[in-house]
């Protein structure tokens, strides 16, 4: 079965404002204000909690250490879990594109570096979890992207075959995951890096979800 696997943050949904808010809650709790900007720091948000904390500490605590990040990371995750869908929305056309793929006989799933429990909660809150046959998170397996094992698990759990699958993502992590798995990769251009993702040399670029069905059929001919 032809299979399309999606990254989550920055690909299916714009989660950046809620992620930045969770990181800023950590700094506010330390009396350090809110050093991260929801617009300017979108790209960092999509690279995960530790990346956000590192950037924030670089701005407000020059003598920060890894111990500071280790201490704040659980607090960030708890804050994010409490407010996971306050601002988060699916990108325009994403759900319609997924439904179109499924109606045409594609299997669809998710492979994300968000912890599985948080990803499950978010997709349930957004009301779209049932549209995806699989969901593999950062802690589902002992390894995470760009190791290809989570991607392979997402394809397998969706009922697909690796050699008939593609990954839709938005960052170098997704590009490297696809390369490691030996599958085509399409990167979205509506994230914070825009068409700059073309520098990663994916097999395709996706400017809007309206074009996903044709893209999937081109990369995975029937």
From TrEMBL:
Statement: the UniProt record of this protein carries the keyword Coiled coil: no
GO molecular function term, any single one: phosphoglycolate phosphatase activity
EC number of the protein: 3.1.3.18
Pfam families hit by this protein: HAD_2
Reactions that this protein is recorded to catalyse: 2-phosphoglycolate + H2O = glycolate + phosphate
Keyword Hydrolase: yes
Gene Ontology process terms (BP): DNA repair
InterPro entries: HAD-like_hydrolase_sf, HAD-like_sf, HAD-SF_hydro_IA, HAD_2, HAD_sf, PGP-like_dom2
Pathway field: Organic acid metabolism; glycolate biosynthesis; glycolate from 2-phosphoglycolate: step 1/1
Keywords annotated in UniProt: Hydrolase
GO cellular component labels: cytosol
Family the entry assigns: Belongs to the HAD-like hydrolase superfamily. CbbY/CbbZ/Gph/YieH family.
PANTHER family: PHOSPHOGLYCOLATE PHOSPHATASE
Protein name: phosphoglycolate phosphatase
Annotated source species: Actibacterium lipolyticum
């Amino acid at each position: 079965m032809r299979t399309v696997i999606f990254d989550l943050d920055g690909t299916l949904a714009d989660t950046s404002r809620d992620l930045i808010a969770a990181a800023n809650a950590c700094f506010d709790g330390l009396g350090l204000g809110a050093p991260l900007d929801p617009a300017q720091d979108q790209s960092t948000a999509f690279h995960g909690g530790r990346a956000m904390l590192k950037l924030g500490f670089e701005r407000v605590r020059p003598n920060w250490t890894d111990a500071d990040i280790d201490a704040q990371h659980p607090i960030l995750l708890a804050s994010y879990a409490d407010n996971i869908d306050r601002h988060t929305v699916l990108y325009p056309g994403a759900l319609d594109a997924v439904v179109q793929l499924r109606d045409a006989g594609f299997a669809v799933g998710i492979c994300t570096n968000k912890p599985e429990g948080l990803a499950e909660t978010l997709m349930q809150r957004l009301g779209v979890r049932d549209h995806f046959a699989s969901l593999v998170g950062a802690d589902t397996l002992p390894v995470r992207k760009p190791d290809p094992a989570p991607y392979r698990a997402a394809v397998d759990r969706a009922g697909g075959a690796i050699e008939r699958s593609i990954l839709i993502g938005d960052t170098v992590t997704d590009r490297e995951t696809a390369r490691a798995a030996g599958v085509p990769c399409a990167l979205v251009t509506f994230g914070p890096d825009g068409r700059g993702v073309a520098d990663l040399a994916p097999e395709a670029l996706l400017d809007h979800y309206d074009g996903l069905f044709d893209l999937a059929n081109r990369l995975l001919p029937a």
